[in-house]
Amino acid sequence: MTRTVLGAASVEAKLRGVRGGMTIPEARRVCPEIILVRGDSDKYLSCTKKFINILKDYSPYLEVFSIDECFMELPLSSSWVDSGVADAPQNDITTSLREGIADEAISGVSLMRLPRSLWSLAMTDELQYATQIAEQIKSRISNEVGDWITCSIGISYNKVMAKLAGSLYKPNGLVVIADPEAAMWILDKIPLDEICGLGPRIKRRLNNMGIFDFPALRKVPRENLVAAFKSYGNFLYDIARGENDTPLTTFYEKEEVKSVGHRHTIDHDTADPIEIKQVLLKLTELIARKLRSKNLVGRTVSCWYRAAFDIDYYQTTSHKFSGDGMQLTIPTTNDGLEIFEAAWKVFLGLWDGKRIRMVGASISQLQPLNPHTETFLEDKKRTQKITKALDNINDRFGEFTLQRGILLGTSKIRRKPNPYLADYRFKL
User: Fold this and answer.
1) CATH fold for domain 259-427
2) What distance in Å separates the CA atoms of residue 237 and residue 243, rounded to the nearest whole number?
3) Residue 400 neighbours by CB distance under 10 Å
4) pLDDT at 421
5) Burial 152-187 (b: 16+ CB within 10 A, else e)
6) DSSP letters spanning 222-272
7) Most CB atoms closer than 10 Å: which of 276, 287, 363, 399?
8) Which among 70, 206, 200, 181 has a CA at the least distance from the CA of 117?
9) What pLDDT band is residue 69 in, cutting at 50, 70 and 90?
10) Phi, psi (5° rounding) for residue 24?
11) pLDDT in tens, 1-45
12) 202-to-162, 163, 192, 193, 197 alpha-carbon distances in Å
């Protein structure tokens, strides 16, 4: 685990300053006694399937946002529900809110204390219904997924406010943001980048404009924000007022993937062409397996790499790593060797012979496998039959149980669930 990042941090680790996304050396500096546990993607995916299947019982209007978070619009209700499992501990923002704001328990819901003029609006019939459903969801997740899993739920009138509500009280929270007036009251108490879609880079740009909080952002005319941020300026203007019209995209309406790819960070820097070739071949075999599992073929092969750390490059550019990438169009295929040959050709055209730390490949311009993309050449048909037999064996006994001779004795690269479930969306 020398070259990886933390997928998540425990309650105890977060209290010591450890955060998801940190590199291992960074985490050890913050918390020298940290205990590292290898991720178990198959176990996470199994829990996710159970979690999503529970939510599907309550509404067909369900958007899978990530491996542990969904948006749901309840039928006959304008309320949006954001549900996230495997809660983290309270962050500094939540702690500061708790110190200054008491809770009101209304029908079992933990509400941030709103001005008294808003209390009558806080629990309309729609929101009462939404909170009852939320409590049922929490109970079912505990009973059917596992009582070690907690779930925070946010209820509001649009997706962004629902996500904010779900993030305010963790673990196991349930927060309602009833309307724009209540939303602005809460926005005025949180940092800019607490809102989903407003990241650190945008925050820095706003800070450079003298905007450090939502009250200040609310004073900027829409045309000024659009001039500075183009169309994203409309998002900033609206969200400062608790408004957002982003539609929900249900899990069954999402388009098929537009490309299939993998990348791998090697656990040491290398300039050995044989080693790089073996890694790239493994990646393209995984890509081809995924294409075949979806009955797809592709045409445009891309390859890219990241160079080893270079102190001179870092001092000149302030970027840790350099890299490059390019693509090549070939006849439609889902054969790993054909994809590899194109990727290797691209790589050799980019590589300067120096050490690298990561290499990746992908294929796009995807099409369904049908008579128009099927081969009629006898030798290729024979190869396809052999490949199908190999796929059946590897499906049963594990990836690379059978593999090309050049890969014998090399370490395995396992496919892992994408954090946003792109790989598994149609298997839920």
Assistant:
1) Dna Ligase; domain 1 (3.30.1490)
2) 9
3) 19
4) 56
5) bbbbbbbbbbbbbbbbbbbeebbbbbbbbebbbbbb
6) HHHHHHHHTTHHHHHHHHTTT---PPP--TTTSPPPSEEEEEEEEEEEE--
7) 363
8) 181
9) confident
10) -60, -45
11) 566 778 788 878 888 889 877 888 889 999 999 998 887 777 888
12) 21, 19, 9, 8, 9
Whole-number Å distance between alpha carbons of 59 and 74: 6
Sign, Cα dihedral of 51, 57, 59, 63: positive
Residue 412, pLDDT score: 67
3-state class of 217 per DSSP?
Answer: helix
Percent of the chain residues topping a pLDDT of 90: 37
Are 283 and 260 in contact, with CB atoms under 8 Å apart?
no
pTM: 0.67
- Supply the pLDDT for residue 139: 92
Angle of helix 273-293 relative to helix 378-397, nearest 10 degrees, comes to 90
> CA 417: distance to chain centroid?
10
Can you tell me the distance from the alpha carbon of 344 to that of 350, in angstroms, rounded to the nearest whole number? 10
Yes or no: say if 54 and 144 are a contact pair by the CB < 8 Å rule: yes
Amino acid letter for position 139: S
Q: CA nearest 351: which of 320, 316, 325, 321? A: 325
The amino acid present at 271, given as its one-letter code, is A
Location of structure tokens 């939303």: 183
Q: How much is the pLDDT for 79?
A: 59
pLDDT grade for 167, boundaries at 50, 70 and 90: confident
pLDDT recorded at residue 369: 82
So where are the chain's domains? 11-39, 42-239, 259-427
pLDDT in tens, 175-194: 888 889 989 999 999 999 89
Structure tokens at 188: 């005025």
Residue 360: strand, helix, or coil: strand
Confidence band for 300, pLDDT divided at 50, 70 and 90: very high
Q: Under CATH, what is the fold of the domain 42-239?
A: Alpha-Beta Plaits (3.30.70)
Q: Which amino acid is at 63?
A: E
Burial per residue of 14-46, b for 16 or more beta-carbon CB atoms within 10 angstroms, e otherwise: beeebbeebeeeebeeebeebeeeeeebeebbe
The yes-or-no answer to whether 42-239 and 259-427 have a common fold is no
User: Distance of CA 11 to CAs 89, 169, 391, Å?
Assistant: 5, 14, 41
Give residue 422's pLDDT. 53
